[in-house]
Amino acid sequence: MAVSKFSDVDEYGFKREADFDYQSYENIMSSYLSVLTTRSMRWQKFLQSADMLKNRSKLKRFVRKGVPGSLREEVWMKTSGAKDLQQKEPNLYQTLLTYEFDQEISDQIKLDLPRTFPDNIHFEQYQVSLYNVLIAFAHHNRTVGYCQGLNYIAGLPWPVIATKWFICLYAEVVPTETVLRIWDCLFLEGNKILLRVGLTIVVRLRQDLLATDDISTLIGLFRSLEKSYVLMDCHEFMKSIFKVPGNLRRSQLDALRQRFYSERMANKSKGS
């Protein structure tokens, strides 16, 4: 049996499964690492430019090709708008932590913390920090508050799959490096990226999906996406999300959302 030079824990601390395809991963990383090196040098120079956020077309091109891990914190803070908000209210987070917490929300967060990334060897040391972030957000944005998750309807695979994709932003679905590449684009271009990713997954795995002959096999296929070579090769996959779905105009998506909402409200009225 060939010995891999890669650890059974990835660079982000997630344990790899026993049947992880090290050979395919090595094949992908042998070329991807050189891409990362080149992108890192270009990003360093780009970040020093005063008009980085103003040069939208160049910024989008850079983000779509991937943000180096060492620069993600800085880039995400800028592209998401968090940096501007932080500068406007620099003490907001610390102030929120001094508030009297809603006990029900606090208890729910504490209940969920041990369930968060249980296969990550580093996560336990960050649970207090995560608790603080979640409780501060819940009290600052009371409309959203804290949501443990959704209860899924057994036997209906698409609601289960789609919710896992869109609610968790693919965090528990695809390989870690691919998740981060998706988030690179998400922070800059918004939630349309999530739809592009979902459509691309369905199209690129079309043959496998059509080959399934029962619901359990279909669900199993979607649950094994993290092992898919298509998704493991994050660089090629991210290129494809801007080609495979074609042109997705925001106005068209907004119209479809409004249509769906209207139909849902109409059906709800009929049922009441």
UniProtKB/TrEMBL annotation:
Domain of life according to the entry: Eukaryota
SUPFAM superfamilies cross-referenced by the UniProt entry: Ypt/Rab-GAP domain of gyp1p
Keywords for the protein's UniProt record, in alphabetical order: GTPase activation
Coiled-coil blocks: none
InterPro entries xrefs: Rab-GAP-TBC_dom, Rab-GAP_TBC_sf, Rab_GAP_TBC_domain
Molecular function (Gene Ontology), one example: small GTPase binding
Segments forming domain Rab-GAP TBC: 66-272
Function summary: May act as a GTPase-activating protein for Rab family protein(s).
The protein, known as: Rab-GAP TBC domain-containing protein
Organism of this sequence: Anopheles melas
Lineage of origin: Eukaryota, Metazoa, Ecdysozoa, Arthropoda, Hexapoda
